[in-house]
């Protein structure tokens, strides 16, 4: 039996949280055994942390704590200290920090692009420092920011690496992350035929470097544009991946699950 982990799903967002029991029952039926739930900032830390206790399904939920680069406006000056405290409090159950990272598009569209980018980099690097101190892996957001993300990760010298969420890019870009001990989050992007660069990269990557994700309710798969994404589609991402790879499905699913176990010590 094939089993799956959605390594990136925002279960606390309205589109999913309003019918959470139903969402998880559907996942259970599709053999989705685990869902990793990143947070976006102080505004949803408690909500994400409280998810596992509310759930009645057998799907294991893993909350993560972090500050997403889209949500820096109005961030409290002591947000990193608050984060540090909360990590210490939840050390026993926390498997990773995130989501965090650098978004070049958001910076470019802001009123002060350079200033915004520098602020993103500063907040990202402070979180990488926390990951190092607490010896946790990180879940990293990137968009038009490979050089900046790679630079920060190289400087951080993390002990446990992490996941490059929604990886898209060339084989050379992927390789830089693999060399830094990171896994690549493969999501709905590969269901779009126009994503040729990413598709060609994913065909060639070592199987030990791949994990699956949906980013639900964001990033709908091809054919579902305009609809809220759902973690059940991690199975469709897997099918799309299996079509690009030479390994048989059983072997592929087992290896991907093993990659998750290895990264998060599960
Ligand atoms: Zn996300």
TrEMBL record:
It comes from Thalassotalea euphylliae. InterPro entries: DNase_TatD-rel_CS, Metal_Hydrolase, TatD-like. It comes from the Bacteria. Keywords: Hydrolase, Metal-binding. A divalent metal cation 1 binds at residues 8, 10, 99, 215. A divalent metal cation 2 binds at residues 141, 165. Transmembrane segments: none annotated. The keyword Disulfide bond does not apply. Belongs to the metallo-dependent hydrolases superfamily. TatD-type hydrolase family. This is TatD family deoxyribonuclease. Gene3D superfamilies: Metal-dependent hydrolases (3.20.20.140). One of its GO terms (cellular component) is cytosol. One of its GO terms (molecular function) is metal ion binding.
